[in-house]
Design brief:
Elements (H helix, E strand, L loop, with lengths): L3 E2 L5 E2 L1 E5 L29 H14 L4 E5 L9 H15 L2 E6 L8 H6 L4 E5 L5 H8 L4 H13 L4 E8 L8 H8 L5 E6 L16 H8 L5 E3 L8 E5 L5 E5 L12 E4 L5 E2 L11 H5 L6 H12 L9 H4 L7 H4 L2
Parallel strand pairs: 3-4, 3-12, 4-5, 5-6, 6-7, 7-8, 8-11
Antiparallel strand pairs: 1-2, 9-10, 10-11, 12-13
Length: about 325
């Protein structure tokens, strides 16, 4: 079996796939309502059949061990449960891990089906514990639906449930200790994520709080004990006296590019070998939709795309100038 290895020797066994570039929320850091970003036509995104073929190549031929489905909001895509029914036999045959990143608003009525169809892990976004502020951040009155989804995910004993909070200064940063207090008895992992520059989200230094500043604020009330990370992204701690695990995602202030093991596939099938890189010009869709295109051709295209991966992404000031860095289509 070939491995997805870049020119710096990093082996990529984790793929994030955006199922759709649309969302039912308008979060200020990702999909603000005043954004000028335009979405792709449904006919332009990868079909379920094309996704099935791509996933089979990743897990059968390229050593991928983990696939996470993202968006936009993946669970708003039509017939999404049928898609997971399609790939379930692949999951059983090759044993790769399946995760979903979701805002939780459409999760509750699908969650039992997803669990039975091999979904191992859920990352659920929640940026405030205040229902009125939730509306201000997301543009929708869906706070209680999201919290209910988290509680149901915990009750169903997924392999892991993570609650993701994007921290924006003067918006929700005063809630850091509130989150720890609220979730300290939950068998979840809290992940505090640095606010990142993306097209249309009006990022600037005044809204940014580094992971070290977040940690310092939490330590005013709780004792944090560092633990060895079981991944390559977060800086992990246990809250002393509790079972709660915290992870800090420091993409801007302390990048983790040297250990990056992931590729991203946009909703239209373009490869992004870095969260902040421009996608490949040629979409995999044009290859996957051609019945005469061999798996070997697709494999070579993926391998060649990986050759252009840089050692690390640019700094925040340069990232704010990127024009094609739309979080909605990237796959998170």
């Amino acid at each position: 079996m070939m491995k997805l290895t870049d020119k710096f020797g990093r082996v990529h066994d984790y793929v994030r796939i955006s199922l759709i570039d649309k969302c039912n929320l308008n979060c200020i850091y990702c999909n603000p309502s005043n954004s000028l970003v335009r979405y792709e036509a449904n006919s332009s995104i990868l079909s379920y059949e094309e996704l099935y073929r791509l996933i089979s190549i990743f897990v059968k031929d390229l050593g991928v061990k983990k696939i996470r489905f993202t968006g936009g909001e993946p669970l708003i895509r039509k017939d999404v449960i049928k898609f997971f029914e399609m790939i379930y036999p692949l999951k059983k045959q090759y044993g790769f891990e399946i995760g979903i990143t979701t805002n939780g608003a459409q999760l509750t009525d699908k969650i039992e089906s997803l669990k039975s169809l091999g979904v191992d892990k859920l990352n659920i976004s929640l940026d405030t514990l205040n229902s009125r502020k939730f509306i201000a951040i997301t543009g929708k009155d869906l706070f209680y639906r999201t919290v209910t989804a988290i509680e149901k995910a915990v009750a169903l004993n997924f392999k892991a449930v993570k609650v993701n909070m994007v921290v924006v200064k003067n918006i929700n940063d005063e809630e850091l200790t509130d989150f720890v207090e609220y979730f300290k008895s939950y068998p979840v992992e809290l992940r505090f994520i640095e606010y990142m520059p993306f097209t249309g989200n009006q990022w600037d230094d005044s809204k940014f709080l580094s992971w070290k500043e977040m940690k310092a604020r939490i330590e005013e009330k709780f004792v944090l004990n560092e633990i060895e990370s079981d991944g390559k992204v977060s800086k992990d701690f246990l809250v002393e006296g509790e079972n709660l695990k915290l992870g800090f995602i420091s993409s801007i202030s302390d990048h983790f590019c040297d250990s990056c093991n992931r590729l991203r596939i946009t909703a239209t099938g373009k490869i992004k070998n870095c969260l902040f890189a421009n996608p490949s010009e040629l979409s995999l869709k044009s290859l996957l939709s051609g019945e005469s295109t061999s798996d070997e051709t697709i494999i070579n295209f993926i391998l060649n795309s990986l050759n252009s991966k840089r050692m690390k992404h640019p700094g925040a000031n340069e990232l704010t100038k990127l024009n094609q860095n739309n979080m909605m289509s990237i796959g998170g």
